[in-house]
Specification:
The protein is of the alpha/beta class. The protein is built from nine helices and six strands; from the N terminus they run ααααβααβαβαβαββ.
Length: 252
């Protein structure tokens, strides 16, 4: 019979191998369906169809391909409902920065880091609450360039989480700190893992709230690799109270 330490090492190796296999299968599943609209859209023209159509319009607006954004007459004609969740306004949001930790975001582009900084600075400037979620373990702290921006800011907190979804930690923090729950704004890492889980669960548990996902402030697992693999935002969970939004930085 092997030593206890040797058995622990074997167990760790087995768990690490199992976790890597699950991650590979999940990434392959995303790649297999990337760029494809679900067949059920042609068969079930109901709520799911409307949600996918809205997601398509959101992505067009974010990419700057929708002429209706600049056309005020079309806004008056009915685009207002869509743009309500997309255009930056003064309503308070609780900014949730998900797992922007050293081991998760290394390899991401400088544009991504600049967007995160802009989101944090905007939240501080407007007095919004900021929650930095950090996955417990060996993944490091939230990157220093973000933490420096909230030095001395009383409405910024760091919270440890122990699974992909941080909905429990966010709910508890908002309750204890008196943070608002009308609008959550999410950014960080990864689009296809913890942001997906946290955004989905916030939408399910806070049905009267709006959950904004800042596409330019999110990075997927593939986007930190070499070469980077762009994330397909059609893979993100559909919900009537989830919105994809641009970001805080102005771009040409």
């Amino acid at each position: 019979m092997g030593s206890p330490r040797g058995m622990v090492d074997v167990a760790r190796a087995w768990y690490r191998g199992r976790r890597e296999k699950v991650e590979r299968e999940r990434r392959q599943a995303l790649l297999d369906r990337r760029g494809r609209r679900p067949e059920c859209l042609e068969e079930r023209p109901g709520l799911l169809r409307r949600l996918f159509d809205e997601r398509e319009r959101q992505l067009e607006v974010i990419a700057g391909r929708s002429a209706r954004v600049a056309d005020s007459s079309s806004v008056a004609a009915g685009a207002g409902d869509l743009l309500h969740g997309l255009v930056a306004d003064s309503a308070e949001r609780t900014l949730v920065v998900v797992d922007a930790q050293n081991d998760f975001v290394k390899g991401a582009s400088e544009e991504y880091f600049l967007e995160l900084e802009a989101l944090v600075l905007r939240a501080r400037r407007r007095g919004w609450p900021i929650i930095f979620l950090e996955f417990f373990g060996r993944y490091g702290d939230t990157i220093e360039r973000l933490l420096k921006l909230v030095d001395g800011y009383p409405r910024a907190v760091r919270v440890k989480k122990y699974e992909q979804s941080g909905v429990g930690e966010v709910a508890k923090t908002c309750r204890e700190q008196g943070f608002g729950t009308d609008i959550f704004q999410l950014c960080g890492a990864y689009s296809d893992h913890c942001i997906t889980a946290t955004g989905r669960d916030l939408a399910l548990n806070f049905r009267r709230s709006l959950v904004e996902i800042v596409t330019r402030g999110c990075v997927s697992f593939g986007e930190t690799g070499t070469p980077p693999e762009p994330y397909d935002w059609f893979s993100f969970p559909m919900s009537a109270n989830i919105r994809l939004v641009r970001g805080a930085r102005k771009r040409n």
